[in-house]
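Re: [help] complex structure
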Amino acid sequence: MPRYLILGNSAGGIAACEAIREVDKKGSLALVSDEPYPAYSRPLISEYLAGECSLEKMLFRPQGFYAEKGVETFLGERAVRLDVRERLLHLERGQALPWERLLIATGASPFVPKIEGLGKKGVFTFTTLEDAEGIASSLGSVERGVVIGGGLIGISVTRALARRGVKVTVVELMDRVLSTILDEEGSRLAHEALLRAGVGVITGHTAKEVLGGEGVRGVILDNGEELPAELVIIAIGVVPRTELLRGTGIKVNRGILVDRYMSTSLPGVYACGDVAEAYDFVYGVDRLTPIWPNAYLGGRMAGFNMAGLKREYPGGTTMNSLTCFDLALASAGVVNPDQGYEVLSRLGDHTYEKLVLREGRLRGMILVGNIAKSGLIFGLMKDGVDVSGFKEALLKEDFGLASLPEEMRRERLRRNG
Amino acid sequence: MKRIYPQEEVCMACRLCEVYCLVEHSLSRDPVKAYKKESPRPLARIRVEERGTLSFALQCRHCDEPPCVYACLTGALKKEAESGVVRVEAEKCIGCWTCILACPYGAIAMDTARGVVAKCDLCLHLSLPACVSRCPNEALVYLEGMDA
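Output below.
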């Protein structure tokens, strides 16, 4: 039985632990993380900041999970060197952990632009519980906040800050918010939801400098406009944490390249989650899709393969479900298609639906306002179903499984996941 | 494990399955009180689909590899090892609706009033799931092994 070592304690790492133990109840299994907490749901840091969640509620698995699964944990320990010849992972405090099957599930860290003033008090990124704790304890002296980045993280932290009574202005470089997961129409509806909630939105600009003495007092934009603020959040994006693989020869692009069995270019070393470029079934290539469900499923497949059970990762794609203040949004796949795609859409009062097709198959979808059908549609997209025979029905109010051709419907109802 | 399978040939869309699912998951367990007094109204976890004379009722399939469980951000959705039931722990649910996007059957209900999801739990506390026992036509059957 091989020695398993998991580097990372979030969706991917936990999924791998669970999968390994489904196959191998005895093999030595250890997990390392630079964060000191048991696995927590990273997306919940915004609920934490909003004051609606304790760490207890954020725990991804119950207390006792690691003991029950027989996982030896090294929490709050930073890995500093990966020796692929001796198969040792060196920790900062000196320990060298041996492995025979290693999973890199280190995730991604915030992208920090080169602008002046980032070292001032009151400037934060927003990807860890520690970030949320730091921001929360600073709120006593905060009236106004500037969030640099109007994407998923930016909108998420904006919601939390608004719930805490901070007057927020979002500064987005692109000409619209949530530009990677919505189209122009969707972004317009989201923008309106932000304005309805009293959030200021500036698009097409970015921050050039953070102003203030020891503490933040505002930012200057590229057009010279000055925004006064006592809090600045950098929420531009994330960068895969691949630093440990330098010098190992393992193939890294922007993220760690993995095959359909989640193996890197070095046998015995696997990767999953935000750090990995894994198969995307819509684009048909390996790419970064830093989405919690993909990290979990990728980690699960990695764990099975590490334990000797050959399982193919079915692929993931960009998929997001979120609420932008009073507006529910669901989006997946290609939402801003180039030429060569067929687009169907329906715009209502505060609702919007868009489907992107190619060769009769769904490649992308946006639902705004009424997202109850999102799973039915995403399921057809995942399975690569030819929907050309009933594509108009997809947009109708009453779309359901009953809208599918008889044999297709019967077949889907016979399955059990 | 036993699962509930719709029999569309004998379903007449009377929706008694929806009514009794809602009642079974209400506080009062009484139809009049559940519909008219409980606020917010409890939800049915089964949904009747109807198109012309075609109709059938659909609930969670309690999948062997449940995409909703793998998608759940908080760990609120779990597949129970013993029973095989996919259950949601409402206290852990934050209403992010990621599972709604993940479920290809649309089997998870959005309880927007409570900000959580609701789903079939196979009524394990009863000898037969409520929808199965209350269907006048046996258009819902509770059987082992009707997998594809």
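The interface with chain A takes residues 3, 5-6, 49-51, 54-56, 58, 61-67, 70-71, 73-75, 91-92, 94-106, 108, 110, 146-148 of chain B (CB under 8 Å).
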